[in-house]
Every structure is written in C-alpha cells, then in structure tokens.
Specification:
This protein is α+β, with helices and mostly antiparallel strands. Strand 6 and strand 7 form a beta hairpin. The protein is 32% helix and 26% strand. The chain folds into three domains: 19-188 and 257-269, no CATH class; 190-252; 272-366, Roll (Nuclear Transport Factor 2, Chain: A), CATH 3.10.450.
C-alpha cells in the first residue's frame, strides 16, 4: 500500500494565502491615501439621492445611482486611467469554447490599470468590459452581449465605468437607507407598542398593526427589519417582518436626513453634468420636432446651429439615445421624404461648454444619402 501521509503533510504545510479581492470594496478604499475622502463623497451622494427618492416617492434605480456616484467620486480616485483598448473579436483569439475565450480575455484585461476597457465581439454581438484595478473586470450587461453594434450608446466609458464601484454602492445604499428611516422614526418618536390603524398588508386590511420592534441586520446587506403584529376581527393575529421602506409607509413618517449626511452640496449631487447635458440636448431636439412650436420659437432653437439641413425630421427618431463623447453629445437623425420613411441619415451633434451643461453650438451633419 502506498504511503500517502508525506504528501498530505506537505500540502498541509503550504501557507494558505487570503483570497485576493477582485472587486472594489470598502477595505480596499480605506487602505488608499485618498480613500476616506472618496468614501465620504460616496456616502453623501447615496444619502442625497436616497433621501430625495423617499421624499418624492420615486424609484431610484441602481444604475442611475451608480452613474451619479461615479461622476462625483471619480475625480477623487487618482488611479483611474481612461484608455480604450479597441474592439476585440473573441473568435479571433482562439478556437476554444466561447466562454473559455472570454474568460481568458478578461483575465488579461484585469491586469490593466483601472479604467482600461474594451468592447468584445461574440457571434456578431458586442459587450463592454473594464478593468477595476484590483484584479477583476466589470460590465454593465452581465456578460449578455446584447448590442448589435460596437457604437451602441451603452458601450462607452461613461456607461461602463460606474459599475466598477457598483458593489460597494449597493452595500452602502442599504445601510444609509436604514439610517434615514431610523432617524425618521426617532424624530416621530415611534416606539415599540405604537399602533397603526387600518393598514393594508399582504393583500388584506388589518384593523390594528402594532409595532413590535427592530430586527437588526436581518436582510441581505445587513439592513434592519421591522416586526409588526397585525389583528382584525375574526382572523388569527399575524406577525409580519417588513423591509424599511414598507415600515416607513405604514408609519407615515416624514423623512429626516441623519446629521452625518447633512451637507450644503447635497442638492448638486442629485444630478450629474452628463444628465443635465442629456436633458438639454433632448429638449433642443424636441423643439426642432414639435409641430406646436411657432416658427419664431423654432428659429430661436436653431440659433445655436453651425449649419442646418432645411428638411424636417421624423418624430419617430426622438426615441434614439444620445451618445456622450467628451464635451459633445450626438444621436442619429433621419430626414423624412414626405412618406414618414427615413430618406437620409444624419447625425445630430450638440456641443457644450467644458464641465457645464451650457450648449455652445449644434449641427445636423449628413452621414448618408
């Protein structure tokens, strides 16, 4: 019988190294000389936007919040190097299965500095990936290769970069939302034993809902849960474990910003320059298309143009997205020929003052006939 003990002993004596992170988390950021200022700004952006969504009652999507965090925090991260490595065909990298080729390509990309990115082609579809600078890569689509062209608006640095910080944003968002709701409950003096009347829960209306207490770190992301006991005539009492936003609604709380996140710059953190530019460009385009706009008003809208095709542009083109490149935004535009069919392809270009949403000029340029 072969004696395997020495081999086992040899493996046991090998030092087990800690797993290296492959995505940006707080522990990594706290170890950087610029990390504390970066995390502080991240928290303020999250708090300002989360508070606004609670006050106004709208859904704040993760992708929108990540865009805003990236816009305000990127200047504080000196390690970012924006560099496009090109459009790379996975089929030309090898004849192995596609998933293996992609894995090998991304491993190579992960060795590059944070901000280096590329667009990869797989079976005629395209996706963008970026190195996060800590040994991993991030993508907006989740490796789905949804775009039919490498020039799609979502395949850009500005659209891909926010996902580099996305995991840490997700974790901190849950905690900060908890803190806002806790502060709101404290300001309203909502204590265990408080009874709420005629509350709709789980598809039924309950006569009395009694607040039982807080269950710390109950949900994923270490967010709190709120336990309540609901009763109504003829039905056995039932206990519910509620997410913070559900409890906020039941208790009819008035939002209160925790003192740690009160900052004079919070109003400005609700929208990025890119978002304001997009709104300005879309507004200008809408004025060109509007049939209700007077000729004088339309002429005013056209005053910023370098040159203008005299043709009208079909309203169906208003659905196209703007693509951001430096201090300009562009989108396709199609000249109509009287039959509502695209006759000539153009590019609608809007230029802005650097670092601002002020339009300096615009043009409609012929791209095909």
């Amino acid at each position: 019988m072969t004696n395997i003990a020495p081999a086992i002993l040899e493996r046991a004596q090998v030092e087990v190294l800690p797993r290296q992170p492959t995505r940006i988390e707080a522990a990594y950021l706290e170890g950087q000389p610029w990390g504390q200022a970066f995390l502080r700004e991240m928290d303020l952006v999250i708090a300002a936007n989360e508070f606004e969504s609670i006050c106004q009652g709208f859904v704040l999507y993760d992708a929108v919040l990540e865009q805003r965090v990236a816009a305000f925090c990127r200047p504080l991260d000196p390690t970012v190097e924006e560099r496009f490595l090109g459009v790379i065909s996975l089929e030309q990298l090898g004849d192995e299965p596609a998933w293996m080729t992609l894995k090998r390509a991304l491993a190579s990309l992960a060795e590059q500095p944070r901000g280096h990115w590329a667009v990869y082609e797989q079976a005629g579809r395209f996706d963008s990936y970026m190195s996060n600078g800590v040994g991993g890569t991030d993508t907006a689509s989740g490796e789905k290769f949804l775009s039919a062209t490498p020039a799609a608006p979502n395949l850009s640095f500005d659209e891909t970069f926010p996902h580099v910080y996305g995991y840490e944003v997700y974790k901190r968002r849950s905690r900060i939302r908890d803190e806002i709701i806790t502060a709101s409950a404290a300001a309203a003096n909502v204590q265990p034993g408080r009874v709420f009347k005629d509350v709709r829960l789980s598809g039924a209306t309950w006569s009395n809902v009694t607040f039982v207490g807080v269950m710390p770190n109950y949900f994923v992301g270490r967010t709190n849960a709120y336990k309540v006991r609901a009763t109504r005539r003829g039905v056995r009492a039932h206990e519910f474990v509620l997410e913070p936003k559900a409890f906020f609604s039941i208790a009819k709380l008035q939002p209160v910003m925790p003192a740690a996140y009160v900052d004079d710059g919070n109003r400005a953190r609700l929208q990025t320059v890119g978002e304001r530019r997009g709104a300005a460009a879309q507004s200008l385009w809408d004025r060109l298309l509007s049939t209700d706009t007077s000729e004088a008003s339309r002429a005013e809208a056209l005053a910023v143009f370098d040159r203008l095709a005299t043709a009208r542009f079909g309203p169906y083109a208003s659905r196209a997205s703007f693509r951001s490149e430096g201090d300009q935004m562009s989108r396709p535009a199609y000249e109509t020929d009287g039959t509502d069919r695209p006759a000539r392809s153009h590019t609608f270009i809007v230029r802005f003052r650097p670092g601002s949403d002020v339009i300096t000029s615009a043009s409609i340029e012929r791209t095909s006939s």
